[in-house]
Amino acid sequence: MPEIDLIPASWRAQRKARRTLRRAALAVAGLVIGIGAARVGLEVSTRHAQSAVQALQAVRRDGDRETARLSALQARHAELERQEALIATLRGPSLVSGVLQPLDGALEDGLWFDELQYSRPTLLPPPGSPPPATESSLGIRGKASDAATVGRFVDALASRGPCQKPTLAPGEARRYTRFELVEFAVSCPLRPAAAGHG
């Protein structure tokens, strides 16, 4: 028996067109959803990347600030070391051992200092080089119980003290209520070993 198709061809074409249209709509919807998801993913990853870049920039700024601070501290440290070396050069370790201790040994009872002046020309050496040889001097003003005490003190300065060729400027005798004191002033260049150039 022959088969008779009772379904109209237009309906089949319509049904086929609907299926094709549905498939195309699903494909377009899938494509739109995929593009939307990709865009959201890109925006999220862009925000993460931007926040990471901002964090790195903040870390870099902090690092630059710390580097600048470290450079300033290193420069300050170098300046302080230079000043310390300059002070050590100017002060010299032998000032005490070469000048003041022998001066103390030359003192005797009945002699007092009113003023002690240590002079050293301040020629600043270039950093890292030894100081130039300069002549230091010592000036002393004081009082003694008598002129003989002053004479012994000046002799002691020249013989076993730090001075070479001390110059004495005698002062006048001052009377006080119970006693009399002789004023004096001594000045002298210091021996090179006592001047303390180290």
Radius of gyration: 50 Å
Helix tally equals 4
CATH architectural arrangement of the largest domain = 2-Layer Sandwich
Total of domains: 2
Give the rounded overall mean pLDDT. Answer: 81
Order of helices and strands: HHEEHEEH
Name of the CATH first level of the largest domain: Alpha Beta
Number of strands: 4
Strands in their spatial order, largest beta sheet: 1-2-4-3
Head-to-tail CA distance between termini: 134 Å
- Give unreliable regions as ranges: 194-198
| Proportion of strand residues | 15-25%
- The helix content is 55-70%
Shape by Cα distribution: rod-shaped
Helix/strand/pairing category: alpha+beta
Q: Can you summarize the main beta sheet?
A: 4 strands, antiparallel
The CATH topology label of the largest domain is Alpha-Beta Plaits
Question: Can you describe this structure?
Answer:
This protein is α+β, with helices and mostly antiparallel strands and 198 residues long. The protein folds into two domains: 1-91; 94-195, Alpha-Beta Plaits. The chain is built from four helices and four strands. The chain has helices at residues 9-91, 94-106, 147-159, 192-195; strands spanning 111-119, 137-144, 167-175, 180-189. It has a four-stranded antiparallel β-sheet. Helix 2 runs antiparallel to helix 3 (147-159). The longest helix has 83 residues, at 9-91.
